[in-house]
Amino acid sequence: MKTIYDKISLRMKFSDEIRALLIEQREEILHKDLGIERNKLAEIASYKNTPFPVVISGLRRAGKSTLLAQLAHQFYPDNNYFYVNFEDERFLSFTVADFTKLHELLIELFGNQQVFLMDEVQNIKGWESFVNRMIRAGYKFYITGSNASLLSKELGTKLTGRYVPVELFPFSFKEYLKFKKLDLPDLKLLTTVQKGELKKAFRDYLQEGGVPQALQYPQVPIYKTLYDDIISRDIGERYKLTDTKPLRELTFYLLSNISSLVSYNKLKGLLQLGSVNTISSYIDYLEASWMLLVVFRYAFSVKKQQIANKKVYCIDTGLVKAVAFSFSEDKGKFLENSVFLKLRRLYEDDIYYYKTETDKEVDFYLPKEKTFIQVSQTITEPTAREREIQALLEAMNEVEKSTGIILTEDDNETLEFGDKIITVLPVYKWLLDEKQISSL
User: Fold this and answer.
1) Do residues 371 and 405 lie in contact, with contact meaning Cβ atoms separated by under 8 Å?
2) Which of 61, 207, 373, 376 might form a disulfide with 364, Cβ 3.0–4.6 angstroms?
3) What is the pTM of this model?
4) Which pLDDT value is given to residue 3?
5) What is the DSSP letter of 172?
6) Distance between CA 62 and CA 67 in Å, rounded?
7) Where are the domains positioned within the chain?
8) Residue 153: what pLDDT?
9) How far apart are CA 182 and CA 24, in angstroms?
10) Chain centroid offset of residue 216 CA
């Protein structure tokens, strides 16, 4: 049985260890390589002078810690903030009861600051109690986490006041070009050389993906480590799965079939996984960890949306290339996945696929914009051209005042069919256009 002296000794050891850790982490953020400025930084800047906590969530290794360092250097050049990264293993025994002592140590070391930068905070059970108390006392918080629950309705029950959710994805194509130190030319006045270089960069982007560390250290199997961490730690440990093999089989199958329609019932039979509920739960876990994202069929009935087949996309095509079964020359799947990622950045969850009354499929439908988007590697081949155009025209006839877009590898034209206009654009140009869809 521990005596009072033993407990005091343990507390002293805890204080010494955490004190040293906080000093190390302070030095790390002060001297961290800031990389390229992320597009999300401008959005976060608009929340700087609000009292609301900013909650940044996204895939492991998507650059959340670097984004925190960027905002620290840009918003707080006098270093008047606290920084704590809870991903460090020395926080394994840390509990919510230790936050007060942590705050005392931070003040002792760095003065009484009013801003907290907290990395991977979801590792500490009950963290929201401390944050809620400190927000009421007037402190500002920037919080990151690799779990999508930080941006879900679940968070609304944890943080008692308003908060600002921010999603950080791997590099967009524009950020990829910045990382590669490639100049962005005037898209309206592309020379032959510029067009060729831009198309090559886009092909490389689809293959390499946008995870910063994977691009920085291509000789290291970053993606495979990332994949294992998500399966074992973010999902296996969090949801207490005793055997992750069925989850791995499902994930491999889905990654090998991105941009395709999938039936949960057929997946159950194909992979011999218990029940449809098991499939649904596993896919929910994969979404919560930011590896995969699911698109529903558009329907007025929520029940019909739920029972219809789903389309599954990956958060990063580089991850697909590194882990899944090879797609050989099936570039169309990667093109469609890249289109989805831009739409997801712009419109969050208001994205669907569409089936016409004659069962023709349109890849994406944005109800608020009344816009249909079809993705095809090319429409120069007559059969493909007819298929894509007819599906769009049928959908546009079923939804009044709607518009249609076809995105391809390199086609650029405007098609008119009576009062229906379909805009055809190269995907690489469309990805670099920062306007909302309705302003195209």
Assistant:
1) yes
2) 373
3) 0.91
4) 47
5) P
6) 9
7) 4-168
8) 56
9) 35
10) 19
